[in-house]
Amino acid sequence: MTTQPAIISLKNIGKTFHLGAHQIRGAHDISFDLHAGRTLALVGESGSGKTTCARIIMREYIADSGELLFNGSAITDNSPKGLKQYRKNVQMIFQDPFASLNPAHTVDYHLRRPLSLYQGHLKGQAVTDKIHDLLTQVELDPEIVAPKHPHDLSGGQRQRINIARTLAVGAKAIIADEPTSMLDVSVRQGVLELLNRMKRDLGLALLYITHDVATAHYVAEDIMVMYGGQILEWGDVKAVLSNPQHDYTRMLLAAVPDPDIRFDDPRSRLEPNAVNRVREQAKLLHPHIRSAGPNHFYRHIDG
Ligand SMILES: Nc1ncnc2c1ncn2[C@@H]1O[C@H](COP(=O)(O)OP(=O)(O)OP(=O)(O)O)[C@@H](O)[C@H]1O
To answer: Could you tell me which residue ranges the ABC transporter domain spans (predicted)?
Structure first.
């Protein structure tokens, strides 16, 4: 059982989108905690509600029901200043490492900017030294990389700059939405290892969003499987993946040849037939899940 306090808690969060006469359930009765020094993997197919959860945590969406807690307290300050203070602590890394960087500016600028906004006590040479430290922390050579523009860098290097920006802000929790899915397979492992090391060394709380069960196995201690805006199963990543209790988790896993095979091993690639089988079976499962009412919590992280 973990003794560290949760940095972020979602309590019974619900969010429905209204598109004309249609209602789409983005999140239904979602509850989970993000703890310092731990990664929770949020796994599910496209449209399962992963990004909705991320946007609620980032306070880009306001939940219809339930509560978002930061360090155990309800968030009451909705002023721009309150939001800025919150985002100092909770940062997001996006799927597309290029889109989140401004092509007109250098790496130095991309790090200088959050430092001036969030670490205003640093001045002059201290800012340059901090930029040097940040680039070293994300395993890039400061002398070479700082003067470069995003288009001079590889996808993996750009994602490292995005990670360095979250460190420049001083974030305690990072929401990483498919952070490696647009990267070449050969550099994915390095970026995930960096996230793992930051989590360990800096005690960050990470939410790792992915549709890829194999990478969840590699980076996370805990896992939650989502479908149709609901959590179907959650718990210790090794326990859930080795002994899934929900049919849908079993179906997702059936598409991966062997969870013990590393995700960058070619043998871990999904077989097209298996993927199609999961999708077809998920369609059949869908009405059952929707009519099931409350979430199915088959395991509890602390349990
Ligand atoms: N702003 C929105 N307006 C209307 N519907 C939305 C909105 N955002 C999400 N949805 C719907 O809510 C459901 C959950 O979407 P969400 O983006 O959270 O899923 P996801 O698991 O993150 O998918 P992906 O992996 O494709 O990003 C989907 O049916 C989606 O179409």
So the answer is: 8-253
